[in-house]
Amino acid sequence: MSIPCTHFISSENSSLENGILMGASSPISPPIPAAVLTQDELKKIAAYKAVEYVESNMVIGLGTGSTAKHAVDRIGELLLQGKLKSIIGIPTSKKTHEQALSLGIPLSDLNSYPVVDLAIDGADEVDPSLNLVKGRGGSLLREKMVEGACKKFIVIVDESKLVDHLGGSGFAIPVEIVPFCWKFTAAGLMKLFDDIGCRAELRTCPEKNGKPFVTDNGNYIVNLYFQHDIGDLKAASDAILRLPGVVEHGMFLDMATTVIVAGELGVTIKNK
Ligand SMILES: O=C(CO)[C@H](O)[C@H](O)COP(=O)(O)O
To answer: Carries keyword Hydrolase (predicted)?
Structure first.
């Protein structure tokens, strides 16, 4: 279903850039009286807004997940219509690679394009400083590599992803670890956060009789659940990365340059 975004934004008291409401901290469009939008429709609205930033000849980081999928679909559609030309996509997972290939998006990698113009991806949590939790889809390592290499990183979420602090949704902060002695690494992760209460669980696949989930890089994921606010995110990040066996974690600190939030009351653009 194609959702017209224009009715979703009021231009009063705000500036519009490429049809996008800029600089607002809260949506100012009137409540939508009709049917309530589904979460997937909100994801699609955010994704389509983000794709308005894509220009011909750009190298684009292609995110992973149900929100990013809409953005990749839209880029494919615009390429097919000739409205975008000479795009190079850098996928952040095997799944996105397959999707982009099927849409005819030309693909490459960071070896050939170490600087990416723009990346568009979803997130699991967004805090008020635009720090993120990512990786509940399991692609955090490639996402962090590609999104760390881009000049502009647009995050697309529905409003359910907004939190007061990372970990605040009660869901996991994922950490990618090597399979070798994973219990040792998981125990080390829990111990790091003894003081605030932390549980570490290996991510498994119910559809594969509970076997460990294996990332595109052949690693495991440990999900961390925190009882209290982590506090100093940079210190937590450094401590996790220092632990032998850890490959990467799903806290994306100070990386997003723009967050597009689609909610029942409209689209909000938050800029760093
Ligand atoms: O980080 C991710 C995958 O590793 C996803 O972007 C994140 O999990 C959000 O997913 P979705 O858009 O399906 O809610």
So the answer is: no
The DSSP secondary-structure symbol of 271 reads E
Catalytic site residue 248?
A: no
Q: Is 122 in the pocket of ligand 1 (CB under 6 A)?
A: yes
pLDDT single digits (tens) 164-220:
999 988 889 999 999 999 999 999 999 999 999 999 999 999 999 999 999 999 999
CA of 8 to the centre of ligand 1 (A): 24
Enumerate domains of the chain plus CATH numbers: 6-160+254-271 (3.40.50.1360), 173-249 (3.30.70.260)
252: buried, middle or exposed (CB in 10 Å: 19+, 13-18, 0-12)? buried
Place of tokens 């979803």: 122
pTM: 0.88
Q: Is the CB of 188 under 6 A from ligand 1?
A: no
- Using DSSP's 3-state secondary structure scheme, residue 133 falls into strand
What is the predicted ipTM?
0.98
